[in-house]
Amino acid sequence: MTAPLNFPLIIAGFGPLGTPELMIIGVLILILFGAKKLPMFARSLGKSMGEFKKARDEFETELHRAQEEELSKPS
């Protein structure tokens, strides 16, 4: 379970991003990609985020498993 997203969003190197900044970024994305490609872009972004989360979860599971094996070894 993740913590809720609290604004302003802080991104390394960019400082805090509030609602106005995120709206400007959204408008720029709309201008760059166009209204027709925006759903495809959002779908692709969602799939990428899902794959990243899955890989992160697998890594954490493997890390916990390795830690448990290390702790269960007799000294």
Structure in words:
The protein is mostly helical and about 80 residues long. The chain has one domain. About 70% of the residues lie in helices and about 10% in strands. The chain contains 1 helix and 2 strands, in the order ββα. The chain has a two-stranded antiparallel sheet with strand order 1-2. A hairpin with a 3-residue loop joins strand 1 and strand 2. It is elongated and about 60 Å long. The two termini are about 35 Å apart. The mean pLDDT is about 80.
Give the number of domains.
1
Strand content: 5-15%
Number of helices: 1
Helix content: over 70%
Calculate Rg over CA atoms. Answer: 19 Å
First and last CA, distance: 35 Å
User: What gross morphology would you assign?
Assistant: elongated
Oligomeric category: single chain
Lateral arrangement of strands in the main beta sheet: 1-2
DSSP summary, beta strand count: 2
* Largest β sheet strand count, sense and barrel closure: 2 strands, antiparallel
Overall pLDDT metric: 82
* Secondary-structure content class: mainly alpha
Question: Which regions are unreliable across 5 or more consecutive residues at pLDDT < 50?
Answer: none
